[in-house]
Amino acid sequence: MFERQIGNRTHRNRMWMMLMNSSMEKKLILVFILLVIIPITGISYVSYQNYDKSIESNSIDYVNELSAQLMSKLDDYIADMKTIATIPLYSSWPSNGLQNLLEDPELDLQKEREIDDYIQLLSTFKKGTDSIYIFDNFGNIFFKINNEGLRKDIKERREEWQNLARSSKAQPVVLLSTKEISSTANSRYVFSIIEDIKNTTTMESVGTIVIDTNVNVIEKEVKGLDAVTKGKTLVIDEQNNVIFDSTKQLLTKNLSDDPAVQKAVGKQGDFKITINNETFICTYLQSEETNWKTIVYIPVHYLSKTAAVTKNFAIIATTLVVVLALCISFYFSSAITNPLRRLTKLMKKIQEGDWNVRFHVTYKDEVGVLGNTFNTMIKRMKELIEEIHQTNIRKRVAEMEAFQSQINPHFIYNTLETIRMTALLNDDSEVSDMIYVLGNMMGYSINRGNEMVTIREEIEHLGHYMQLQNYRFDNKFDFQVTIPESVYTFRMIKLIFQPIVENAIFHGLEKKKSDCRISVSATLDQGTAVFVVADNGIGMDELTLQRLRRQINEDHYDQVSKHKIGLRNVHQRIKLQYGPAYGLVINSQQQVGTTVTFSLPIGLLEEGYRDEDSHRG
């Protein structure tokens, strides 16, 4: 089992490697098949399936709508027939009133004519009325019949109808369809509305009215429904007795055991059922007025005919699209890979040392852009090779100059130390102190192995510088430092403060005779340490200030005044070390003074401290 799994994995890896090592053209064709042909085929299949389901769903919705219309018309018709059946309760016509006529046990020609006229009037109220019968309590029957003749079962059903009417609690009763056998031997199907006629004063029953309606009124509506569904329609009552059947085979039968009727549970719904090896979609809807239920049978094979046409069309269309897609994929894959093949050949020539190759660009597409980039890259690489060659030459010259420049400061530093010791031997402490301070400054400056220093070391160096300046100018300068103790431990690149202070003395304070103040302060603000070097010198006008700001950003030293090189050097070093967002910000006002502000990121200051410690370790 384990060996088989390893074998399968090895086989998959081998197949994957074969695919990855195949040509770009084959990969493009494969990708085209995966991304276009397979999805087209899949979408076509899913679309057909969804269309098939959509036909069923739309058919069910449409049939439900037609069923609702059918049931609404039946409800309206039954409601109208019930209204007609209740007219005798409230009508004052004939002149003596129908109730009075029915209460009179005597039967004469005048009474019979008045009741017949009344029945004749009622029969005109609603189209589809087949027969109207009125019974009194004395065994008399009054009726209006159609051309089919009088019902044979009228005497047998009279008592049944009267009992139903009297037990209906003053509500009309609707009876299911019955096969009416007339005296002419022709049969017809009707449903009946029965209403008890009461004396409105005593509320005693004085007779019964029965209105027969031919089921043809239902058939006319159902024909339109069956024409749409190509199936059949049933109308059943609450006891599952068939009121109407469009096939005329189930009229008056009870279908409680019928599978479709058993599934038609609730007010509305649909389901599938197979009857005699034929599948139907059945939809049903129950009336709120009569509680009758309409069941519509839709043959699935009829719906499938439309879907089959769509399926055949989809298969043909998909096949044509797939063939066309394959042709297009071969053409485009070849058009894309041919320039890449040419580019590959040129790269092989470069690998062999031929730098004079060029890719001939035909189009401005991605391959054209790649070709232009290739040509630019070859040109730039040739320039870089030459530039590297020249840089190496300049680097060797610079290293030699740096070595020579380092000799002189060391020599001067050692000489100063000798002079200092001589001054001490001659008891000249002031000269000795000056030389000592100058020596410390020289040692701080020429120590090339330690470019990162603490803020404390940088401020101490600045203090030595100010001490020498006060020796020179007879303690002319008031120098103050205001820096939080926590900032002193941060590390920064050295020789930042001295050039700024030197510029302040040279340009702002040297010409003043007294009250010469220089201050250095620091604050912490949202992840940065903000340093401010301020003087109360003569300051600058706006034009001079703008020129100074522009000069410290110049690229070449020869464009900068010799007195501004120190500030430019500090500005450029800060930007190189901490990023272009940092550097010197200079503000000045004539006869007020100048401030130089710069910010350094605390994270990098702390990181510099850690890096320096690890360097020392």
> What average pLDDT do the residues reach?
77
- What CATH calls the topology of the largest domain is Beta-Lactamase
Biggest pleated-sheet summary: 5 strands, antiparallel
- Number of DSSP strands? 17
Sum up the structure in keywords.
617 residues; HATPase_dom; Beta-Lactamase; single chain; transmembrane; alpha+beta; 15 helices; Sig_transdc_His_kin_internal; HAMP domain-containing protein; 5-stranded antiparallel beta sheet; Heat Shock Protein 90; 19% strand; disordered C terminus
Give an account of the 3D structure.
Its main location: membrane. It is a multi-pass membrane protein. The chain is of the alpha+beta class and 617 residues long. The protein folds into three domains: 23-315, 2-Layer Sandwich (Beta-Lactamase), CATH 3.30.450.20; 366-448; 453-616, Heat Shock Protein 90, CATH 3.30.565. It is built from 15 helices and 17 strands. The strands form four sheets. Strands 2-1-5-4-3 form a five-stranded antiparallel β-sheet. The chain has a five-stranded antiparallel β-sheet with strand order 7-6-10-9-8. Strands 12-14-15-17-16 form a five-stranded mixed β-sheet. Helix 2 runs antiparallel to helix 6. The two termini are 57 Å apart. 23% of the residues are buried. Residues 397-408 and 609-617 have low confidence and may be disordered.
